[in-house]
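It is worth pausing here to work through a concrete case rather than discussing structure prediction in the abstract. The textbook approach is simple: state the sequence, then state the predicted structure, then interpret. We follow exactly that order.
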Amino acid sequence: MAKEKYERTKPHVNIGTIGHVDHGKTTLTSAI
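Step two, the predicted structure:
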């Protein structure tokens, strides 16, 4: 169950990163 949750979160973060880059790469880097 834990493994499935982690795998599902991985692609989700990737999608969020791509969308953030379009809005502002600096903001994303600062958040990290």
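Step three, interpretation. The longest helix spans residues 2-31. The radius of gyration is 12 Å.
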